[in-house]
Amino acid sequence: MEWSRRRSGWVWCDHTTNGGGWTVLLARLEQAKQEDFSRGWAEYKKGIGDPAAEHWLGLEALHVMTKGRNHELRVNITDWNNGSTWAEWKEFRVAPESEKYKLTVGRYTSDSHAGDALKWHNGMQFSTPDRDNDVLLGGHCAKKNDGGWWFRGYRGCYQAHPTGRYQHNPGDPPKTSVTSRNFELGPVLVWQNWRGESYYPKTLFLMFRPMLN
């Protein structure tokens, strides 16, 4: 991966994965001091962290960069035993702030392996600990889970929580007798659909690019 200058400022680009051309919108990885993603609306709008390390690109930049042209989305995930997985969606768009940066994701590609965790979040408005836009009656998913995201609320806040609290080499995946697909571990970094149970990833990258065809 390398740097590139865009209208939103410096961004982290991946020029090798599946043809390249990807802009990283969220990077999660082990570092000496983990980035704090329990931030407010203004910070998620502008961007969080260092684009060369753990960071969130920014909601306004995501809206500007995905409007007016079709984009696709990809997630790359690695575990603590050098295993990896990925998934792609053939549409990705973030609405303007007037629509609370509503998320649109399209078709999940059939050769993906990470699981379609984003289907649960499609069409949701963005929420932060200081801005409750989920559909949870009498609750606040972003405050409960210490991060900003397109939380749902009905029958569960998330299936993916990539801005959750980073877990340093937690060892074996958490053991639980709960089998519901809506089981939640709380304010931690997870991608529930991978391996059929919740697991703490070592790295997670969300990235997007203009459609190639």
Beta strands, count: 12
Q: Any idea what the shape is?
A: globular
* Helical content (DSSP H or I, runs of 4+): under 10%
* Uncertain parts: 1-7, 172-183
Write the SSE topology:
Elements: E1 2-6, E2 9-14, E3 22-28, H1 41-46, E4 48-49, E5 55-56, H2 59-66, E6 71-78, E7 84-89, E8 92-94, E9 103-105, H3 141-144, E10 160-161, E11 190-191, E12 203-210
Antiparallel strand pairs: 1-2, 2-3, 3-5, 3-12, 4-5, 6-7, 6-12, 8-9, 10-11
Short description:
This protein is mainly beta and 213 residues long. The protein is 8% helix and 25% strand.
Description:
With 213 residues, the protein is mainly β. The protein is built from 3 helices and 12 strands; from the N terminus they run E-E-E-H-E-E-H-E-E-E-E-H-E-E-E. It has helices at 41-46, 59-66, 141-144, and strands spanning 2-6, 9-14, 22-28, 48-49, 55-56, 71-78, 84-89, 92-94, 103-105, 160-161, 190-191, 203-210. The strands form 3 sheets. Strands 1, 2, 3, 4, 5, 6, 7 and 12 form an 8-stranded antiparallel sheet that branches. Strands 8-9 form a two-stranded antiparallel ribbon. It has a two-stranded antiparallel sheet with strand order 10-11. A hairpin with a 2-residue loop joins strand 1 (2-6) and strand 2. The protein is globular and about 45 Å long. Residues 1-7 and 172-183 have low confidence and may be disordered. One of its GO terms (cellular component) is extracellular space. This is Fibrinogen C-terminal domain-containing protein. It holds the Pfam family Fibrinogen_C.
